[in-house]
Fold this protein.
Amino acid sequence: MAVDDCEADDGAVPGGRYVSLSQLAMMTGRSRNTIRAWIADGMPVHQRPDNAADGGGWQIDIAAVIAWREERARAAAGMDDDSLMDKEEAQRRKLSAEARMAEYQLARVRQETLMLADVVQIVSEEYSEVRARLRSLPARVSQTLAGADGETLFREMRKEIDVALEALGYDAAIQRQADDQHRNNQADGGDDENRA
């Protein structure tokens, strides 16, 4: 569409906002010469000034310009009218998806690291408790079993050792964490063989 052929409703998108050539250049981050080249290439213009030297007096419909640029981008990319994504948009979406994936993977690593730290904390506390119980065993047993026969001594010692070792029993909290992690990995399609 030539500049001279542009009338008020030719190619104008309803509800558009009119700006000057200089304003459009500033809004798009392009030079006024680039905007003039776009006009020469058929960019729709609402009103052309009598003296266009200073860039003033132009009335350019922003919505019509955007529609024109999108149409040209689709045509240059070989896309049909139903496809609205140009190469720049596809690249932007790809980068955005890659960034989200990296953030997701980092969050999973952090979560697994925290879970491993929790397991280390629990095991450390349990070993400390077992150590304390086993070290106090002679004092507890000697007072209650003074003069007991061998069988009673054996039975009571075994009971005290079992009480001390209960702290090392398979902890239900650790099992729940492992089960939750396994379910999350399965839901994400992941593999949890090498995770704590």
User: Anything to note?
Assistant: Helices lie at 21-28, 32-40, 62-77, 87-144, 150-165, 172-187. The longest helix spans residues 87-144. The mean pLDDT is 74. The two ends are 66 Å apart (CA to CA).
